[in-house]
Automatic annotation (TrEMBL):
Segments crossing the lipid bilayer: 599-626
Residues making up the signal peptide according to the UniProt record: 1-16
Name recorded for this polypeptide: Glycosyl transferase CAP10 domain-containing protein
Region (Disordered): 24-45
Keywords annotated in UniProt: Membrane, Signal, Transmembrane, Transmembrane helix
PANTHER family hit by this protein: KDEL LYS-ASP-GLU-LEU CONTAINING - RELATED, PROTEIN O-GLUCOSYLTRANSFERASE 1
Length: 655
């Protein structure tokens, strides 16, 4: 009897804990009903971080972020097969991902500085931008180590599941429910729309110029955006769990209605809040101010003016609110750190990649419906607190969300993934890469390489991304081999010692000229040839010098056992490399990259038209000559017939 009572008691406690957890997850990001901060911290992410045992480091923010990454990788929900500790299991993991369509369509593979995904993955705009972010990092700061990762593009933040592997480590751009959600946090793809190397750097410079140009800032909290609702399910159920963001936005608008002297938070793109009478949400009740706003058709909190990112610099305080789609992250936060204002973050469980470095009162101020007015009043009355927040935001911009900060963090993510899944055992040596793809049909895998064409507008805000299909696994492995070998650090160090006087040769091994970039766009075989040419130059130079055994061994392996590297392809079958589904061929992409100037393209088009006209005139001339020749031939033949007939008639008369 006592045992039965104990079992019933434990079941009741578990059920109560589950209900409490669900209630916390379903609450509003800014409501008092959902306070995860059990240690008294005014900002929920900091409280979550403390509970998880991730130490803060105000001197080195990246140490705290790396600690959170390691904590996420040690998640007990990950299956053992998804976290291999030897080369064979790591190889089996990658082969399993490549052969399972669902997993393969979420795969990003970085090999030798090249980015590979699938055609299905490229259908999502956010997926393309994430690839562009990785490509831009490599273009500006150098190659990423070889790595494979499963990436989830949605803002909810979920890990992929497989029957054999169980839960799989997945990179996510936000965790809606907090750090305890599954996944590894990475930057969202809206820093310069993915182009962190040029577009994002230009945006930062523009925002900082706007901040420096402001003489006096308006002492109000500024926010502009949309308030939306969701479609009920076919059964009529309203998705209240996705309503956090819109509810928080409506709360901020209510603050503007109540305190217009302190808050300037309005909707300017869409003002369509949820109808509480038709779709009530128990954890997200409307108060009197919110109900009155909706009753008046949002007239006092609606603004039809469209504001640019530079306009945020005119205000002392800039507010970031949860996203309207899932109540998760908002891309609006990306640019707020650079406008020279104090950043206010709406309190909630949502976390992003940089949150382990942030601290209430140092980098930002955490606000909610109940605390926002008192926080702003305190900052207005204490200039030193306000100055500290501004300086903290500037440090975030300088160290974290700058191109350099984004690059440093992504390299930490890559290194932690490589270490946790033993990826270095199967991706760093060309022979190991070949063993992964042994027996696989690349034509059926649907792998696509993504590369960036350096084509910008005058404001350097536009980058074109090209794609080409991988159809031959052997060629794919070969190109990867030369891409890795020609940039192998240990070998290059050895070459520097062997070829001390050949400075130009060493430079050519590690740098690419404009001509190399153009040649690289032609096709994979051409780049393969370029890498072999570089290796050939070094090995030829070593034949005249006393090179080390290591260098000579590399030359022998690079030439596949032959003494010299002589087979350099000289032709390119462009027609055979057209993309599927009407995509642009590599030749067309290369031609567009060569003729970047508008007037040069116009001139080339005119020359093409002129060539067609000349060809048409030539064909017309040939037809005219043929017709005249035919007419002359007919006239000659008819003359002969007439003469023959006249001779016959005269002969008959004589007879």
């Amino acid at each position: 009897m006592g045992m039965r009572a104990l079992v019933v008691l434990l079941a009741a406690v578990a059920q109560a804990n589950e209900k409490t957890h669900l209630r916390i997850r379903k609450g509003s990001p800014g409501s008092g009903a959902q306070v995860d901060a059990v240690d008294g911290s005014p900002w929920q992410p900091s409280a979550q971080q403390a509970r998880r045992g991730v130490a803060r480091d105000d001197g080195d923010w990246f140490a705290a972020m790396a600690g959170e990454l390691r904590k996420s990788l040690n998640d007990t929900r990950f299956g053992k097969r998804a976290m291999p500790h030897d080369a064979m299991k790591a190889r089996n993991l990658l082969r399993h991902i490549l052969t399972k369509e669902k997993l393969r369509d979420s795969l990003i593979l970085v090999l030798g500085g090249r980015l590979y995904s699938t055609q299905q993955y490229l259908h999502a705009d956010k997926a393309k931008k994430h690839l562009l972010l990785l490509a831009a990092i490599q273009r500006r700061f150098g190659r990423l180590p070889n790595v494979f990762m499963i990436h989830e593009t949605s803002s909810a933040g979920v890990c992929y599941y497989d029957k054999r592997l169980q839960m799989i480590p997945t990179t996510v751009i936000a965790k809606r429910g907090g750090y305890d959600d599954c996944g590894l946090l990475v930057p969202n793809p809206y820093f310069g729309r993915g182009d962190v190397g040029t577009s994002w750097a230009a945006t930062i410079a523009e925002l900082q110029d706007a901040a420096n140009a402001v003489k006096e800032r308006i002492p109000r909290v500024f926010w502009r955006g949309a308030v939306d609702n969701h479609e009920p399910s076919p059964s009529g159920r309203y998705p209240c769990e996705r309503e956090w963001g819109n509810y928080a936005r409506l709360e901020s608008l209510a603050l503007t209605r109540e305190h217009p002297d302190l808050f300037d938070s309005k909707c300017n793109t869409l003002c369509a809040p949820r109808d509480e009478a038709a779709h009530p949400c128990d954890d997200l009740p409307y108060d009197a101010s919110m109900t009155a706003m909706i009753k008046n058709n949002m007239s006092r909190v609606r603004d039809d003016v469209m504001y640019g990112e530079r306009d945020y610099a005119n205000y002392k305080y800039v507010l970031n609110l949860p996203g309207k789609t899932d109540g998760s992250y908002s891309r609006n936060l990306n640019h707020l750190w650079a406008v020279g204002s104090a950043v206010l973050l709406w309190d909630g469980p949502v976390v992003e990649w940089l949150y382990p470095a942030l601290k209430h009162g140092e980098t930002h101020a955490s606000v909610s419906r109940s605390s926002a007015k008192s926080v702003v009043d305190d900052l207005q009355a204490n200039p030193m607190k306000y100055k500290r927040l501004v300086e903290g935001a500037q440090r975030v911009q300088r160290e974290l969300v700058s191109p350099e900060g984004l690059d440093r963090y992504m390299r930490i993510v890559v290194q932690e993934l490589r270490k946790a899944q033993s990826q270095h055992l199967i991706l760093d040596a060309p022979e190991d890469v070949a063993s992964v793809f042994e027996g696989l049909d690349c034509a059926k895998l649907g792998l696509m390489e993504t590369f960036v064409i350096h084509e910008h507008s005058q404001q350097r805000r536009y980058v074109e991304v090209g794609h080409r299909k991988v159809t031959d696994c052997q060629k794919f492995v070969n190109v990867t081999r030369w891409a890795q070998s020609v940039n192998d650090k240990d070998w290059l160090d050895e070459i520097k010692r062997d070829l001390k006087n050949d400075r130009d040769l060493r430079y050519n091994l590690t740098h690419s000229s404009a001509g190399d970039a153009k040649e690289r766009l032609l096709d994979l075989e051409a780049e393969h040839a370029a890498h072999r040419m570089k290796i050939r130059e070094v090995c030829t130079a070593c034949a005249k010098k006393h090179c080390s055994v290591k260098t000579l061994d590399f030359c022998k392996r690079a030439s596949r056992g032959y003494e010299r590297l002589t087979r350099i392809p000289q032709h390119h079958n462009h027609d055979g490399r057209r993309l599927l589904d009407g995509g642009r061929g590599t030749y067309a992409v290369a031609r567009a990259a060569v003729f970047r100037n508008k007037w040069v393209r116009v001139l080339m088009m005119c020359l093409d038209i002129l060539g067609l006209v000349v060809a048409a005139v030539g064909v017309g001339g040939l037809l005219y000559v043929f017709r005249e020749f035919h007419r002359t031939f007919d006239d000659t033949a008819s003359g002969r017939r007439k003469r023959a007939n006249s001779i016959d008639s005269s002969t008959n008369l004589l007879i």
